[in-house]
Amino acid sequence: MAACASQRREGQELKSSANVETKFRELLDLVEKLRSPDGCPWDRAQKKGDIGRYLMEEAYEVLEALEGSSPENVQEELGDLLFQILFLAQMAEEAGEFDIAAVLGGITEKMIRRHPHVFGDTTVEGVEEVRTNWERIKTEVEHKGDKGSPICDGIPRSLSTLVRAQRITARTAEAGFDWPDTAGVLDKVEEELAELRAALEAKDPKRMQDEAGDLLFTLVNLCRFAKVDAETALRSSMRKFINRFSHIERELAARGKAPKGSSPAEMDRIWEEAKKNERNSMLELMRKRRSVRKFKKDRIAQTAMDDLKEAALRSPSSRGNRPWKFFFVQDAEVITRLSRCKESGSAFLKDASLAVVVCGDETVSDVWIEDCSIAAIIVHLAAESLGLGSCWIQVRNRRHNAESTSEDYVRNILGIAYPFRVLSIIAIGLPDEIKAGHPYESLDHGKVDAPVLPPT
Q1: 427 in the Ramachandran plot: left (φ > 0), alpha (ψ -120 to 50) or beta?
Q2: Which numeric CATH code is attached to 8-98?
């Protein structure tokens, strides 16, 4: 029976292998047909640069599909990407440069060569040694990076253009080739913008491309100085643009209109409406928000203070019991004293303009901790919506020193009497650091899943 099972598996593998060869050949023939004299005029007109751009688009669509949960989408996008690769190989074959067989043979040889621990006699201890061997083979055997810049050549070409540009500026800055401060980069941005304006006035396509590229590269450098990830920033802006334009389309459709044929003034009004709605979007706030621990000395405007207080008081609570109480502390000396409430992790509070001490009455609700935690989160998001930075300092169940708890320390400074308990302190102020929101790709999607229900 085991022999039969083995033969069956071998037969299935052979059948699968034959099917792969057949399908691969069919796609190759299709691409060749499209490029033939009696094929598709559009496909025959394509240049390598055109296909290169399509290939990049398809690669990004593969990445987007991988972020989702549909294997069918991944399969489809991989097919689109493969089509562009075969299309480029067909163009190269027509030019007498190489064919797809050479591509397949070359990559097979390369992978065998770079995996001597699999296909040779080399032994490795772990992943790091595999990576070291890989780089050594690239340099010593394949002589990669012998030309050009050793510093820049070490940056993977597989990265997106924005990411690679930012890595290049960071790497060359480490070598000492950099502006002394942000002001120098801003001056360079103005210089490149002026040169692009001159190219536009001259209507010189080559100059316009060169100057636009220089301006983009300098802006990426500015992102590095501001500690902003250029790729994340642009992706966020694109998402905002799409959301705003979708809002325009929906609003116009409700009026029986479409963007084409509507006045720019009308669309601008709807655009501004979309921007206003964004500021109140919970998801958008969560996409942008990061904990801030560095603050400017500026005081918070009274209108912002009023909004923060309203947000706190509008927080939901179990059974509407509202067990929370908030102490808004703006006195710099008191804030400095509160910053010493813990043995570690609270010192940054001294630079904040506002300390919101979150307390709860444990006699009013047995879930006062949950209610107060929800209220604290709402205060954080309200601060973000007002352009303020914030960070949570846990007080409950923490120590001030060996003799007293953090809660008792805060209680004594502010004169907080029982039955109120101190949950946390929220440091709030105008941010003196810039942090991009966590990219979508970094989210742990495995934390959200459908339950596996037991059989009934």
Answers
A1: beta
A2: 1.10.287.1080
Q: Band the pLDDT of 7: cuts 50, 70, 90.
A: very low
Q: What residues contact 86, with CB distance under 8 A and at least 6 apart?
A: 27, 28, 31, 100
CA distances from 389 to 13, 295, 445 (A): 59, 8, 27
Q: At a CB cut-off of 8 Å and minimum separation 6, what does 43 contact?
A: 34, 35, 87
Let me know if 87 is exposed, middle or buried by CB neighbors in 10 A (0-12, 13-18, 19+). Answer: buried
Structure tokens at 4: 């039969």
Cα 281 to chain center, whole Å?
19
> What are the tokens at 17?
């292998």
- Looking at the DSSP bridge assignments, the partners of residue 355 are 329, 427
With beta carbons less than 8 A apart as the criterion, state whether 306 and 299 touch: no
Q: What is the pLDDT of residues 406-431, one digit of tens each?
A: 999 999 999 999 999 999 999 999 99
Q: Compute the C-alpha angle 256/257/261, nearest 5°.
A: 155
What is 302-429's CATH superfamily?
Answer: NADH Oxidase (3.40.109.10)
Helix (H, G, I), strand (E, B) or coil at 360: strand
Picking from 356, 337, 357, the residue whose alpha carbon sits closest to that of residue 347 is 337
Cis peptide before 419 (omega within 30 of 0): yes
Q: What is the CATH number of domain 152-225?
A: 1.10.287.1080
Q: Assess whether pLDDT exceeds 50 at residue 5.
A: no
Written as six digits, the tokens of 13 are 């593998």
> What SS3 class is residue 92?
helix
**Tokens 């797809």 -> residue:** 100
